[in-house]
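Quick start: read one record
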Amino acid sequence: MIRRDFLKVFLLLPFFANAYENKKKSWLVLKSSADIIFPASIFSKSATELGVIEYLKEAIKSKYFPKREKKIILNGAKELEGRYKFLSLDTNQKEKAIKKFSKTPQGRVWLIVYTRYILEGIFCHPIYGGNIDKNGWREFGFVGGKPEPKKRYGLGRV
């Protein structure tokens, strides 16, 4: 590596480290907010216990996942943390922050899109990363379709 290339990499390193931290925070916000949107109850496990975040991480990597919706989900999480310091709040404060955020145009769109993917993660076939041990189906009295898929097909809307 020549000196000039080394300097370019060295100067960009803080940018990439910051981008990585922001992405990591966004996923923590998504995980925490999923359990506010779909909490555990006496009838059901929480969204994260049902594998919603694993599903979403897999789905977002897919070439079929709409880029616009990926941007909405990740930017919404970033905004939720930026405006409300979401990760430092207790459960009641997080619920209030989501309600307040959902009253903004960006927050309303984020909540609609994100809730749809939470539900997809709860009810998808476990082969896609969500619905761990088919608990999402079981808790709502669904036994699953037959025949079951042996391999993954495209993720997201096709």
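Residues 3-138 form one domain.
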